[in-house]
Amino acid sequence: MEKMIEIWLNGLCTGSIYALLALGFVLIYKSTGILNFAQGEMAMAGAFLCYTFAMLLDMPYVVAFLIALAIGALLGAFLDALFFRKMVGEPIFSTIMVTVGLASILSCVGGILWGHDVHAIRSPFTHRTASLGGIVLSQGALYTIGASLVLIVIFVLFFNRSLLGIAMKGTAEDPHTSGLLGIPVKRIHMLSWAIGSAVAVVAGIFLAEQSFVRLSMSHTGIKAMAAAILGGMESIGGAILGGILIGIVEGLAANYLSGMEIGDFQFGDVKDVAAFGIMILVLMVRPQGIFGKRKVERV
Question: 93 lies in which domain range?
């Protein structure tokens, strides 16, 4: 029983990171209609920035975290102004290819600046554990879960209660009408990219604390996209649920399916396969995702 609870808590920790990345996907998609395939690379860049300021420049961890967050937000706003402002309303295939190219550029720049070695971030929670009724967990995992939940609640309240959040939702529904009503659509799009990139930076730093800082951590963005699609690309709650669900399924698969033998057949590491398998099964029943809305077009 204790092992099962530990698996679920570790899965919740990983799922919280996926949920944050998926939240960035949904935020940018809802506001601009652009599916950002470079979200994982932004998370990777944020982790490397935090590593640079905290480890190489020996700044306090909190200061390094905040600086990386600010640079990530500025990077998102810059990318919107430079590339994506002209892509709003263009065919989705064109915008996808731009984000794929951006992902490749960020990976190459990351390799040039930081190399291909594996690095570690030393945070206030490094090598510290907490005991909960006989279950031993790292303080970093508990911190990741708690901080992610707080950020998720803040985002939900922001979009549902604040005037700016409501303006962003309105811009996502109908940018032309929103512009006629006096909403600065271009600024809203830039803000969406800034917030989406900042969320990716936070997720990347949390992920680096649980593992290491490396270029390949950008592949987590694909799982986060699967989480966003699973929950429904236009649903913030769906992105959160999708991320947590995939994190827990991964944890269960890693502990109970990986290495299992059936006759002469032996399973390998099926953790990554399980994440996409659950997405495919759900989409076969609900193609629009768990909380997605079926679109009906009248002819």
Answer: 2-215
- The CA distances from residue 17 to 6, 24, 75, 108, 233, in Å, are 17, 11, 20, 24, 17
Task: Report the alpha-carbon distance of residue 140 to residue 143 in Å, rounded.
Answer: 5
Per the structure, the count of domains in the chain is 1
35 domain residue, yes or no: yes
Q: Which residue has the tokens 């390949």?
A: 216
Whether 246 maps to a domain, the answer reads no
Q: Is residue 250 part of a domain?
A: no
Domain assignment present for 114: yes
Alpha-carbon distance values, 207 to 103, 113, 235 (Å): 18, 20, 23
Q: Is the pTM of this model over 0.85?
A: yes
The pLDDT tens digits of the residues spanning 158-200 come to 877 888 877 877 777 777 777 777 888 888 889 889 998 999 9
On whether the CB atoms of residues 56 and 115 are closer than 8 A, the answer is no
